[in-house]
Amino acid sequence: MYKSGLEAMNPALDDIRPSPSNRFVANNVGPLERYISVFGGTALLIRGMRRGRLSMIVGGGVLLYRGATGFCPIYGALNGDSTHGTQIEESITVHKSVDEVYRMWRRIEDLPRFMSHLKSVTSANEHQSHWIANVPPPFGFEWDAEITDNQENRKISWRSLPGSSIHHAGSVLFHPVPARKSTEIKLIISCAPAGGSIGGAVAKLLAMLTEQQIREDLRAFKAVAESGEKPTIAGQPRGIGRTFAEGR
Amino acid sequence: MKAVCWNRKKDVRVETVSDPSILNPGDAIIETELTAICGSDLHLYNGNIPTMKPGDILGHEFMGTVVETGAAVKNLQRGDRVIVPFPIACGNCFYCAKEEYSFCDNSNPNAWMAEKIYGQTPAGLFGYSHLLGGYAGGQAQYVRVPYADVGPVKISPAMPAEKALFLTDILPTGYQAAENCGIKEGDIVAVWGCGPVGQFSIQSAHILGAERVIAIDRFPERLEMARTRSNAIALNYETVNVDDELREITGGRGPDSCIDAVGMEAHGFGIAGWYESIKHNLLLETDRPTALRQAINACRKGGTVSIPGVYGGFVDKFPIGAAFAKGLTMRMGQTHVQRYVRGLLEKIEAGSIDPSSIISHCLPLDEAARGYAIFNDKEDECTKVVLKP
């Protein structure tokens, strides 16, 4: 199997990956993929019914189902049926030196600036910190964590302390790409209820931890690291949108 | 303020909306002095670009005066007169560092949308669908300009707005299209589409050393402009066989480079034209590549096909066999406007290009809806509409 620079650099990566059966699969189809599934599925279904082809009807039905519900039974089957927790890996390349990027991540208090599932992180000392999840009220949720591995310009790992009601662990790996004046970052986050059952607050947190969300978090980190700001259109003017207003 | 808002296919209206404000420290607010309707805005007008929402403010060609700057802006001050390139670029990512501004990694807040359709996201653009950022556009009295230290270029108060405005898009777009051809001494270049980008492609091809430029269109006034102002050999595809004519003019070789300055809404002609419009209406394809097909088939072996015309989705019957058999090079994409502005500004100041000559209509912003309609229907010999707020 091909290994990227990051993987080759860190053969122990598998140690922090939970088994595939730990994946959380309530909603495993992206929004655009859902649109495409609905349109493609409908077309396939109609065509299948016209021609009396069972395979097209079944295929169209599956597409329509995953589009309508956001859950793909095929993805689900591939990932196993256990819903105990989630584990996500995402990579991004930042046009900054490994030194600058590492220093930004080392300021653990800054993590909530980029990671939308965190409200705040407060350092108690060099190794220990207090984390508060960004879950909507009335749920409140906090835990203590420690840095388990810190290799300058290579890797930072952390995990929640024993006794927390959540198992929250993460690693960020850094791989310099001098030819591109860039640094590849791989973020691995795993999160699971410590007791085994999914309580309200933990369930909320897990639902926020999707691959797409972590990807957006990394994108926000990259934008701030490179350009000093996150792009936005929130708050800009727009017309009233008469097509809908007049339709009602 | 007043702004031109998209409501649905062929329905744009001037509405009163709230004024824009600084949303990020790198932003500036520009008071628009002059703005224009671009041929690519007609793709939005005709509902051919997905992810437009009713109420979106249109426009990506605008210039004016800085009225407010964000805390991080260093290069601009209140009162500066600027033109604003249509691609929004952060100036610091891998692509911006290579002056490939329209590939900017950071400027599209809806990057996920573009990634799903295109694999990677290009830069955000002013007023050009939510897929490309959803930014409010420049056909308005005021515009918020992100990364104000990177895009806007100052121009002197003495420079007429009509001459400077097209530095925002169509002049650099025509120039990049010609530059992408890699023109060598003695080359013959054929240009499909004699709208503003086509005209500037023809003029740029001459500047870059083309021996002859052939212009292809069907509107007599545009062909006349190509002949008299842009010094091209003009072919009307409704009255002559373009393939035969191109072969004749090039001694049987075919043009060294072919430029498709038409894009996704080519009108086509005869059976092929009907076929494309039926498929498009049945939603079987999003883009109608009749000009592009002809360009690929006409191009000489080892030649270059350069595509400044906008494509957004999928095409059918793409002649990959001809492109492969002839080993063609194809170059395309949105223009890296910021890369070209200063050089082209010097050419305008020196008088070697006068971009204002393509303007056929100057209307008040209030009449934008009429401007869109006549530009779209090519009524009244319309070649370019500028709007004054």
The average pLDDT score of chain B comes to: 95
Unreliable residue runs of chain B:
none
Q: The biggest beta sheet of chain A, please?
A: 7 strands, antiparallel
Strand content of chain B: 15-25%
How would you sum up the major sheet of chain B? 7 strands, mixed
Strand order of the largest sheet of chain A: 1-7-6-5-4-3-2
Count the DSSP helices of chain A: 9
Number of strands of chain B: 18
Radius of gyration from the alpha-carbon trace of chain B, in angstroms: 20 Å
The helix/strand class of chain A is alpha+beta
Structure explained in plain terms:
The complex is a heterodimer of chains A (248) and B (389). Chain A has 9 helices and 7 strands, in the order ααααβααββββββααα. By secondary structure, chain A is of the alpha+beta class. By secondary structure, chain B is of the alpha/beta class. Helix content of chain B is 29%, strand content 21%. Chain B is built from 13 helices and 18 strands. In chain B, strands 3, 5, 6, 9, 10, 17 and 18 form a 7-stranded mixed sheet that branches. A 6-stranded parallel sheet of chain B has the order 13-12-11-14-15-16, with helices on both faces. In chain B, strand 11, helix 6 and strand 12 form a beta-alpha-beta unit. In chain B, helix 5 packs across helix 12. Chain B is globular. The N and C termini of chain B lie close together (10 Å). The relative contact order of chain B is 0.15. At the A-B interface, helix 8 and helix 9 of A face strand 1, strand 2, strand 4 and helix 3 of B.
